[in-house]
C-alpha cells in the first residue's frame, strides 16, 4: 500500500512571477486532477475540451469566459465547464485552481 498523507491543496503548488504553473495530482484513463497557479494577468486563450471539467478556485480571483459570457470566480467558488463549449480565462489577481476532468 502506498503512503497516505494529508495536505492542503493550496500549498501543493506555488506562484511564479509572470507564469502559469501546473501540477498533475492524478492522471488516469478515466480522468485527471490538476492544480494550477496563475500569476496576475496570466491566462489561457480560448479553447474547448472534449469532456466536462470542474474548476475549483482555491485562492485569488479569475474571470472565465464560457461561450463569450464572462464569469467572475473567487476563492471557494466553482464552475463546471461543459464539454465542447469554448472557454478562456484570465487571472484578475494571482490565483490557484484545481481542475478535475472526467473522461467517461
Structure keywords:
single chain, 104 residues, mainly beta, Jelly Rolls, five-stranded antiparallel beta sheet, four-stranded antiparallel beta sheet, 9 strands, 56% strand
How is this structure best summarized?
This protein is mainly β. It is built from no helices and nine strands.
Walkthrough of the structure:
It is globular, with a radius of gyration of 14 Å. The chain has a single domain (15-102), classed as Jelly Rolls, CATH 2.60.120. The chain has 104 residues and is mainly β. It has strands at residues 20-28, 31-38, 43-47, 53-59, 61-66, 69-74, 78-81, 87-91, 95-102. The model has no long low-confidence stretch (mean pLDDT 95).
How much strand content do the residues show? Answer: over 45%
- Order of strands, main sheet, comes to 1-2-9-4-7
- Determine the CATH topology: Jelly Rolls
- The helix/strand order is EEEEEEEEE
Tell me, what is the CATH class? Answer: Mainly Beta
Mean pLDDT: 95
Name the poorly predicted regions. Answer: none
Largest sheet: 5 strands, antiparallel
The computed structural class is mainly beta
**Can you give the helix content as a percent range?**
under 10%
The number of distinct helices, counting runs of at least 4 residues, comes to 0
Intertermini distance: 27 Å
The CATH architecture can be given as Sandwich
**Count of separate structural domains:** 1
Number of strands: 9
Please tell me what the overall shape is: globular
If you compute it from the alpha carbons, what radius of gyration comes out, rounded to the nearest whole angstrom? 14 Å
